[in-house]
From TrEMBL:
This is Cell division protein FtsK. One of its GO terms (cellular component) is membrane. Keywords: ATP-binding, Cell cycle, Cell division, Nucleotide-binding. It is found in: Membrane. It is a multi-pass membrane protein. Pfam families: FtsK_SpoIIIE. GO terms for biological process: cell division.
Length: 431
């Protein structure tokens, strides 16, 4: 038995009512959290003293409770984030002492306890703003959220816990996005909903450079739409696609400069270019076997870095996805220039740090579509929307072009030595 019932006949009938009230179940959490924190080894020894995590305030919300703690010297937010799962499991491991009156309502009350236990699976979220903030949600996020199209350059990210608000990622505010997550947790679904939303909202101004290195099943639907400028399925083709994007970026750079402006917004240019790489790990030169392969991948990374560094003000947005978040799988400059990160569940704290620069994604529940969306000032858990093939088809079919799409020619690096990207660049203001 996961919960403990101690019966007594001393208490009156009001006790049975008290144990099912949510307020009662959650009231104890501040003490419980402090105990779990202490048992998880987060207290700090300072000579004879033990510095503990002190509760500063707690507040009841309609979704649950928010607790604010002062953390002791010698501890960081990351220390607490690493224990998120311990805290969550501890809170859901309920040993309750309840008083039950043995009368005709006894059986009903026992069943009610069991029902409460099964339905009230709590989830927590942690953040830090000088104080450690732990939010304890009475009930989990839904495990499926319907797709909702975005507007202009905003694409759907998912449902948050904050009053169940639906979150959008605005590519005009944050141009580049890093996407991570272990296999089968929803990266491809997210990329599909992002592309579908862009095609729906800005069909005339969206330009796609798609690189699908996962065998070509996911993004092939977009081969035929007019928004797709180039599509690649192999690293050699990826180099061509990236080169095409890079050259377009240079043309725009000239155009903006000619107009005496600093960025496409000022220059009144409405076009936006999305470079989407699904499985950027396949372009990691460290993984290359032959010298030629290494040269191609190094070149690809160089183009991606240039696009990340210079592209924002020129209307370029780069989305790099990986299921193997290790070391340098995402080029350093791309990572540094991506102020938004979306991570589905990953296998380890190290992998979470590669995607988010923080731990936490390894503690996400094993639910497809559940992710952490992180920007410079906020980190939220979301349930990304599920998009069906029917919605994708319905949205993109009106944009099919008549002629067969151009698939970039595979190039032979032996015959065509690669030129490094130009470096005499002008730095443009990022939006
Ligand atoms: N947002 C979501 N809500 C509910 N279910 C989802 C969601 N996203 C994905 N799924 C389910 O998970 C399955 C795997 O999703 P998806 O193909 O997007 O994963 P992936 O991370 O891209 O995996 P891989 O890297 O192996 O391609 C889908 O077929 C779908 O059933």
């Amino acid at each position: 038995m996961l919960f403990e019932i101690i019966t007594t006949t001393i208490m009156s009938g009001v006790a049975a009512k008290a144990f099912i009230a949510k307020q009662n179940l959650t009231d104890n959490d501040s003490g419980k959290i402090q105990r779990i924190i202490s048992l998880s080894g987060l207290n700090v020894k300072d000579g004879k003293d033990t510095l503990t995590t002190q509760l500063v305030r707690k507040q009841k919300h309609e979704w649950g409770w928010e607790y604010k703690y002062r953390i002791p010297y010698g501890r960081s937010f990351e220390d607490y984030a690493a224990k998120q799962k311990n805290i969550e499991d501890g809170l859901n491991n309920r040993r309750q002492q309840v008083d039950l009156k043995i009368d005709k309502s006894f059986l009903k009350n026992v069943l009610q306890i069991n029902k409460t236990k099964l339905t009230n699976q709590k989830e927590i979220e942690m953040s830090f703003d000088g104080l450690l903030c732990i939010r304890v949600y009475d009930s989990p996020l839904p495990s499926t959220v319907d797709y909702l199209s975005g507007h202009e350059w905003k694409v759907p990210v998912g449902q948050t816990r904050d009053q169940n608000a639906f979150k959008f990622h605005d590519f005009e505010k944050i141009p580049h996005l890093v996407l991570g997550g272990a296999t089968r947790y929803g990266k491809s679904n997210f990329i599909n909903s992002m592309i579908t939303s862009l095609v729906h909202s800005e069909p005339e101004h969206t330009h796609l450079y798609l690189i699908d290195l996962k065998g070509g099943v996911e993004l092939s639907d977009y081969e035929r739409i007019k928004q797709t400028e180039s599509i690649a399925y192999e690293p050699e083709e990826a180099l061509e696609t990236l080169k095409a994007a890079y050259e377009r970026m240079r043309e725009l750079q000239e155009e903006v400069r000619r107009k005496g402006k600093k960025n496409v917004q000022q220059a009144g240019i409405k076009e936006r270019y999305f470079v989407i790489v699904d499985e950027v790990g396949e372009l990691n030169p460290a993984e290359a076997i032959t010298r030629e392969e290494k040269a191609i991948k190094t070149e690809c990374q160089r183009y991606m870095s240039q696009i990340a560094r210079l592209g924002a003000g020129l209307g370029f947005r780069q989305i790099l996805a990986t299921q193997y978040p290790t070391g340098d799988v995402i080029p350093r400059q791309c990572k540094q220039n991506s102020d938004a990160k979306l991570s589905f569940r990953v296998q380890s704290a190290v992998a979470s740090r590669v995607v988010l620069d923080n731990e936490g994604a390894e503690c996400l529940p094993q639910i497809s579509g559940r992710a952490i969306y992180q920007t410079a000032d906020k980190r939220e858990i979301v349930q990304t929307p599920y998009i069906t093939n029917e919605i994708i088809k319905e949205t993109i079919e009106p944009h099919f072009r008549l002629e067969t799409p151009k698939k970039e020619e595979v190039i032979n690096v032996k015959q065509t030595p690669q030129q490094p990207p130009r470096t005499n660049t002008v730095t443009f203001e990022q939006v």
